[in-house]
Amino acid sequence: MARIKQQSVEEVKVAADIVAVVSARTQLRRSGARWTGRCPFHEERTPSFSVNAQDKLFYCFGCGKGGDLVSFVRETENVDFSGAIEWLADRFGVRLEYEETSPQLEAQRGRTKRLHELLDQAASFYERYLWESQAGSRARDYLTGRGLREEVCREFRLGLALGGTTLARKAVEKGFTRAELAAAGLVNRRGHDYFARRLMFPLADARGRVVGFQARKLREDDPLKAKYVNSPEGELFRKGDLLYGLHRARNAIAKADRACVVEGNTDVLALRQAGFDPVVASMGTALTERQLKELGRLTHKLYLCFDGDAAGEAATLRGWSSRRRRASSCTSSRSRPASTRPTSRTASRSAAHRGGLPRVPGAARARARARPAGGVRPRARGAGAVRGLARAAGGDAARRRPARPAEGDAGRPRAPRSRGDRDGLAQAARRWGAARARCARGLRRAPRLLRILAELGPDHFDVVLHRRLCEHLLERGSADAELVALLAELDARAASEGIDEETGEQLLLRLRERRLRRELAVADEERLPDLQQALAKIRTAFREFA
Fold first, then answer.
1. Count of H helices and E strands in the chain?
2. 237 and 211 in contact (C-beta within 8 Å)?
3. pTM of the full predicted structure?
């Protein structure tokens, strides 16, 4: 993959809003100069997740996860560094420039972009035909009969396939090739519309880009016999990766901390129309591992509302039980939380497969009957299940976690117990680490602290990571993901414990004093006067603070 120019990377970091990005995963509240909420990386009742909007850093006092805006996107969207920058650039409208690359890579990037443009224009073409043509009246009547209003249908860009060669001809007139039409899954081997005279549901990826379609049969003489037909699997469309409506439901799922999974696309529209937003469709009854992983990044609470046929039940249970103990609590239209069993121990007996989701206009009743499953808790039989779902979400519930804040302490963490150089970094570095978090932009906010740190030098610290951080703060090293995570933690702890620059200076002086005392213990007579004089200066500085 071609390298993104550093200037473009910096432009993306400046333009992106970390509060807006994180708010799509969890609800945040302003707390002074920071934002707080429940951690999107692990389940918790008391909010311990902290966001620094100015420096664009995050840290969780509960699970220890921390970093900057780019690392947050990498974790939540499951992409590499370049993918995170491209995701943010697309979200905040920044045009990226790339370093010199091979003609093959440039051609592939251009081809992918053109396929996305072609599919988007095809969706617009289908939309116009549904709402503006006389031939679309049959499809419009079908939607009305299902109780679906025009507003929600337009929100999801429903359309109607014309059939014949009109779509292909218009696409060629706009500069697209027949090979691109075939690669996008829009035409058959004869060059005719692949979805002749069917109701079209555009399918979007996590960034909202159209990658394919699902088409619903409207006529008995349809040459495609199945009621629903998807785009052919290809470069952009892979059915097992997608959940219908997820790009629109993502914020609602994160804020509500729950997701309702229904079987059909029209069920999604019906519930959205009724005011229930955290809903997606599996586009079939068997949830795939990739779909579960994507949902697991947003919530550990799932509602299953599937049709009650035997085939659907069997397929769902097979798909669910084969996920290597990826588990969450499931419920349905009629089940109770007490009856829910972790799937790592037994197959779900959700009554969703028996009851089914009523069709419109009964969607409101279905929503009222649905009962919450509750979150996955690491207790009794569910302990293995929560570890499985944590792995599905990209985390690890089994790893050792830092100490949590004390109950009733308003989310403020206890000061960490440490010794040796951990006192120096985990305490003294908190303020100067936070003060220098903007070093990439060349700010100089704490020159006194840096001067004292320079006197200490990296060799004062025994832990390699601490030495690297010291070098970075003195601008003799670069900040990789590990250092950024440590800076984020120091920044959050400094804010939580109220450590200002003066306190940071005192802590660094303590470090300097301790080093001098160690040197005095082994110094020869020639060095003693200089060391004693340096120690006296530190004592004088402490008296000035008092």
1. 23, 13
2. yes
3. 0.57
Structure confidence by residue, pLDDT tens digits, 294-338 = 888 778 788 888 766 655 555 455 545 544 444 444 444 533 333
Parallel/antiparallel/unpaired status of strands 259-262 and 301-305: parallel
Helix (H, G, I), strand (E, B) or coil at 34: strand
Amino acid at 537: K
Measured in degrees and rounded to the nearest 5, phi and psi for residue 54 equal -75, -50
CA-to-CA distance for 514 and 535, rounded, in angstroms? 9
CA 337 to chain centroid, in Å, comes to 27
Query: What is the third-level CATH fold of 6-92?
Result: DNA Primase; Chain A (3.90.580)
Give the DSSP H/E element, type plus range, for residue 106: helix 103-132
Architecture of domain 106-237: Alpha-Beta Complex (3.90)
Distances (CA, A) of 384 to 322, 343, 518: 15, 10, 49
Strands 57-60 and 66-68: antiparallel
* φ, ψ dihedrals at 328, nearest 5°: -150, 170
Q: Which residues of the chain have pLDDT under 70?
A: 1-2, 101, 285, 307-448, 476-478, 500-501, 545-546
Q: Reduced to 3 states, what is the DSSP secondary structure of residue 90? A: helix
10 Å Cβ neighbour count for 528? 12
CA–CA dist 55, 16 (Å, integer): 11
**Helix residue ranges, H only, 17-148:** 18-23, 69-77, 81-92, 103-132, 137-145
Q: What is d(CA 156, CA 148) in angstroms, rounded to the nearest whole number?
A: 12
Are the C-beta atoms of residues 228 and 216 closer than 8 Å to each other? yes
What are the sequence ranges of the domains in the chain? 6-92, 106-237, 253-392, 421-545
Cβ distance 69 to 88 under 8 Å? yes
